Amino acid sequence: MTVITVDGVTRRFGDVVALDDITLDVGPGELVGLLGPNGAGKSTLLSLISGQRRPDTGTVRLLGGDPRDARSRIGLGITPQETGLPPTLRVGEVVDFVGGHYPASRPTAELLEQFGLAELARKQTGALSGGQKRRLAVALSLVGRPRVVLLDEPTTGLDVSARQALWDAVRRYHAEGGTVLLTSHYLEEVQALAERVVVIDHGVVRADDSLDAILDQVGLRRVLVRSTTDLTTWPGVARGERHGDGTQELYTADADTLVRDLVTSGVAFSDLQIRGASLEEAFAEMVAADGALEGARR
């Protein structure tokens, strides 16, 4: 049984096709990262799944029902990109109010403690910083003990420590059996959290696979090495970067040959590491390839 089903969905805004015949299934307990450039259709897809909009064609099901039906949404938690909080209500009052709409909400004090907001319980939301409001918005998505959570750019504007705290909260929720569909501009966030990655570009699903399989689609390997010699222009290096600490980041299709050439050349180097490409590399390569294909079709 799937908890989210999107079948042949198209959604237009005037002449703009935001989603073009999208099909996507998310099973119970999955943690899915949704990637795509600005305007790719990610937020539109979440708005259909949450029942805020309806598709022009195709069907969307949430927990087996119509997401526009309140009975289906009782098992849903959501953090949109923009969250409006009543500025005169206190943080604890907002959590109490939202929690009151669910049959078995989490205790307010417990939730605020988890998100580092306990000391702000009596502070008006209008006096919160942007990062504090973002933490509160994510906390509110979990207050009703939902079966499914949609997180649209949940850590935008947060510092590193606050982002890590939210990652831990998402991991705990997922470990308890919760289903998560997450969009993010931070590719390292998706790489840190997601087990499955769906790439959307120009309203079309370009890839849908496990994180490891997506990364394996990139033919380049990343070689990290410290040297005073510029290695970024060596034969076989597709692209390279030099960093201030002397480390060089080299991308190559044949890491074994590159390392063998380094050893036999007599060039002094140290701290050699060979890694797979990052999710950022996979994403950039897929989007670039699809863009070239679209251009060729025109």
Biggest sheet strand order reads 5-6-7-3-8-9
Principal-axis shape equals globular
User: How confident is the prediction overall: mean pLDDT?
Assistant: 87
The strand count comes to 13
At the first level of CATH, the class of the largest domain is Alpha Beta
Question: CATH superfamily assignment of the largest domain?
Answer: P-loop containing nucleotide triphosphate hydrolases
Keywords:
about 35% helix; alpha/beta; about 300 residues; 10 helices
Provide a descriptive summary of the structure in words.
A hairpin with a 2-residue loop joins strand 8 (196-201) and strand 9 (204-210). This protein is an alpha/beta fold. The chain is globular and about 70 Å long. It has a six-stranded mixed β-sheet, with helices on both faces. It has a four-stranded antiparallel β-sheet with strand order 11-12-10-13, with no helix packed on it. The chain has a three-stranded antiparallel β-sheet with strand order 2-1-4. It has helices at residues 42-49, 70-73, 91-99, 108-114, 130-142, 160-175, 187-193, 211-216, 255-265, 279-297; strands at residues 4-13, 16-26, 31-35, 57-62, 76-79, 148-152, 179-183, 196-201, 204-210, 221-226, 237-242, 247-252, 270-276. The protein has two domains: 4-215, 3-Layer(aba) Sandwich (Rossmann fold); 220-276. It has ten helices and 13 strands.
